[in-house]
Amino acid sequence: MNSLIRVVGLHKSYYDGLTELPVLKGIDLEVQRAEMLAIVGASGVGKSTLLHLIGALDRPTSGKVYYEEQDAFAFSDRELDRFRNQEIGFVFQFHHLLPEFTALENVAMGALIARQQVDVAYDRARELLDYVGLAERLEHRPYELSGGERQRVAIARALVNSPKVVLADELTGNLDRKTSEAVHDLLWDLNDRLGQTFIIVTHNQPLAQRADRLIHLVDGRVSDQVHVLDF
Ligand SMILES: Nc1ncnc2c1ncn2[C@@H]1O[C@H](COP(=O)(O)OP(=O)(O)OP(=O)(O)O)[C@@H](O)[C@H]1O
Ligand SMILES: [Mg+2]
Q: What is the position in ligand 1's atom list of the atom closest to the CA of 45?
């Protein structure tokens, strides 16, 4: 079996006082190692909620997420912080880079938090920034970078600890079409060359259709039918 992530019977409801808002109503899903999986669905259907649960940023109402055989919600909070830092890379629509630090420092930080030696962390950060085409921008702070460059830094940051999976939520939602395509090409290159597993949430149809597999969320569940015009 090459399965990396297994989502079993995942339910998530939000509560407003006593009123329950059921969002995810039983998601079952397996993600294979080195897979590029796209999740699509109408706005508000629960794509980000699902990605947050897979990334163990939030806890489900019921159900499980396994990484290989490890139950992600069985960790203590401290173990979970460590697990997330080392095994899961996140890239969001808003880059969340720290404004007062350079590109190099932003990328190296994740490795330093994972207790890598300083020179090893910085070498790795330099290597990744070179890989994403920013070797000439190491000392730039986020406000000195273009939107596409910031997302490239965010991708490099997500990769710094060689995570099992990178979770990307609308990472090019704020970028123009050309820049967005260049950032996507980078993801595919990382997937091809490094075998990096990705789960991407997107409203971009051509992008979603390039993925190895595309799943469609409808009314809190995975739909078998792909309604291409709907996302
Ligand atoms: N923290 C929260 N508390 C209460 N309700 C929430 C919370 N987060 C999300 N929701 C609700 O859950 C539903 C799913 O939200 P989610 O952000 O997962 O949707 P989405 O599919 O990512 O949408 P979009 O494509 O617009 O990003 C929405 O109806 C939203 O209002
Ligand atoms: Mg969302």
A: 21
Mean predicted confidence (pLDDT) in 98-111: 96
The DSSP string of 37-79 is EEEEE-TTSSHHHHHHHHTTSS--SEEEEEETTEEGGGS-HHH
Q: Which pLDDT value is given to residue 130?
A: 94
In a domain, 27, yes or no: no
In-domain check, residue 28: no
Is the pLDDT assigned to residue 230 strictly greater than 60?
no
Nearest ligand 1 atom, CA 50 = 18
Question: Which bound ligand lies closest to the C-alpha atom of 52?
Answer: 1
CATH number, domain with residue 127: 3.40.50.300
- Report if residue 25 sits inside a domain: no
Whether 51 shows a pLDDT value over 70: the answer reads: yes
